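Lab meeting prep.
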Amino acid sequence: MLQALNNLQNALSYDVNVSTQGNEIAYALYVLARNRKAAISDLRYYADTKLSEFSSPLARAQIGAALGLYGDAQRATTIFSNALGLSRDSIIGVGGGSTAGSGHHSGTLQAGRQAVGEQALDQHAGTDLDAARRPFGEGCRQGSEARSQRR
């Protein structure tokens, strides 16, 4: 395990092109943070200067989760909000309805919630993130059931 973490640390010193290796860099930073081997200065650098170059919401959420694990709640909530916005934009851009990959997103989101605190994350994002993770149509079914019970 220690050798694998050392390999990740070494790979990060060589893979610095976020536009082509962003997903790999973000995941490596998240894994290192979970094992207390990430450099907080590297996490803050990617969060403050390179975040827009990470093209996927999952990569951004992994950076946020890593910062949350190190106790930087303010940056983490800002990044989670950014990732959520990018995720919504990408869903709307493709026509909506796809929940592919939602398992990865929800796992990272759960780690971030534990590190940052659910209420702070929900308040900063301005939404109920549990509702955002539900498949489309689930809320509609619940709403129609409630309406039929009132009749």
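Slide two material, second protein:
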Amino acid sequence: MLGKKVFIAARYSRRKEMQQVALWLRSYGYTVTSRWLAGNTKYNKRRRAQMDLIDCRASDWMLAFSEYGPSTHNARLTELGIFIGEQKPIHVIGPKEHTYFHLPEVQVHDTLYDMRRDAIGNGL
């Protein structure tokens, strides 16, 4: 069963889209811990990294959005590693863009709606 606190990981350029995903999750009673969605660019990189780490650790599970093609900013992959290390559930929407996406504890779905359907038995 998935806990109620979720961290959303995606490219920063998808922030507006992820804000809509956060609203959708909140409508199901989830708490979204991802402060980066608020656009916390007023902080320096060290502070933003610390905030992300705190947010990851405060979460019960991760909802990550992967990408097709190369990416130059991969904070979401670092965040994925945190969740793997802490043995927390991970759901990825999109392609298996990285080796770690092939681990059995990483559940990969084609769409957000597929994830909802597939995870329904796990408490979503």
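Talking points for slide two:
The beta strands are 5-9, 31-32, 61-65, 90-93, 106-109.
The chain has a mean pLDDT of 88.
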